[in-house]
Amino acid sequence: MPETKVTEDTGCGGNCDSCAVSSCDASEQRPGESADDFAKRQQLTKRMLGIKHKIVVLSGKGGVGKSTIAVNLAVSLSLAGKKVGLLDVDIHGPSIPTMLNLEGARAQSSGNSILPVEMAGLKVMSLGFLLENKDSAIIWRGPMKMGVIEQLLRDVDWGELDYMIIDSPPGTGDEPLSVVQLIGKMDGAVMVTTPQDVAAADVRKSLDFCRQLNLPVIGIVENMSGFICPDCGKETAIFAGNNGETMAEAAGVPFLGKIPIDPAVGKACDTGAPFIYHYSKTETAKRFESVIKQILEREETD
Ligand code: ADP
To answer: 95: Cβ below 6 Å to ligand 1?
Structure first.
């Protein structure tokens, strides 16, 4: 599998033939690498150099709201005037098309590139846009997963982006591993968890995954954290525990905040109406914004 190992911003103009930056790993064919693999690796490097910030959203297990956070993060950054791409690498159950009401959308091609589906300036790519039948069960073996993720990164015409947000399936398997290996230098991971103490083991695994891959942890978000009554505004804890904050403190990584359970979040996901846009005045939206503000501030201090 071709990996990119760009360790610095080389100011890539996209023309490897006339480039003199020797620190760029794509400048030379590797021993034993075929001409075709070398060309593909150069193409991947060029695509990735056009994207300033790359953030992967991870969770230890499914159903904790990882895709919800990824969508709202991407939409929010886009509303803040950033050029944003949202990549769904969940090949078994891509949910981003549903969450953005793009279920019927199909990716088009242009020359050798695949064009992302655009929604109000946000560039979105998901395997869901390439599959004929979203209900068919495809049996993906490890190397096939890597191959398809590589194509989604390399063959999609992302153009120049400020941010790429990557929604990865839960756990520490092939998909997040491929993303990190293929992209090389990334800003890091936003980790999503829920308050229950029982979720701590999952967070520990995800933290260890980041440590082993030298992937910085941007921070932990605790989702489904309490319920704010829409009538009286009183906050009630539904799940006991303080897992996100406790784990962040123990690991010495930033705690980005708590997002409450809000029926409007679930409704927004089901109807494909991005919550942060359609419910911007609510307390839940303010909590989302506080998380996103910290991610943006990080960029300013980079
Ligand atoms: P994951 O990506 O971790 O599997 P999803 O983002 O798909 O999780 O969310 C799982 C379900 O929980 C979705 O139906 C979503 O609408 C709902 N959900 C996520 N976060 C919240 C929240 N804060 N309040 C209410 N429902 C939520």
So the answer is: yes
Region 154-158: mean pLDDT is 95
Structure-model confidence comparison of residues 258 and 136, the more confident one: 258
- Determine which residue's CA is closest to atom 19 belonging to ligand 1: 65
Q: Report CA(47)–ligand 1 centroid distance (Å).
A: 31
Say yes or no: CB of residue 62 within 6 Å of ligand 1. yes
Which residue's CA lies nearest to atom 27 of ligand 1? Answer: 266
The count of structural domains within the chain is 1
Q: How confident is the model at residue 122 (pLDDT cuts 50, 70, 90)?
A: very high
Q: What tokens appear for 252 in the block?
A: 């010495």
The type of residue at 42 is Q
Q: pTM of the full predicted structure? A: 0.90
Examine residue 285 and state whether it is found in any structural domain, yes or no.
Answer: yes
Lowest mean pLDDT across 26-30, 65-69, 93-97, 153-157: 26-30
The Cα–Cα gap between 23 and 201 comes to: 39
Which residue's alpha carbon is at the smallest distance from atom 23 of ligand 1?
261
- DSSP output for 7-53: -S-----S-GGG---TT-GGGSPPTT--HHHHHHHHHHHHHHHTEEE
CATH of the domain at 125: 3.40.50.300
The answer to whether residue 41 sits within a structural domain is no
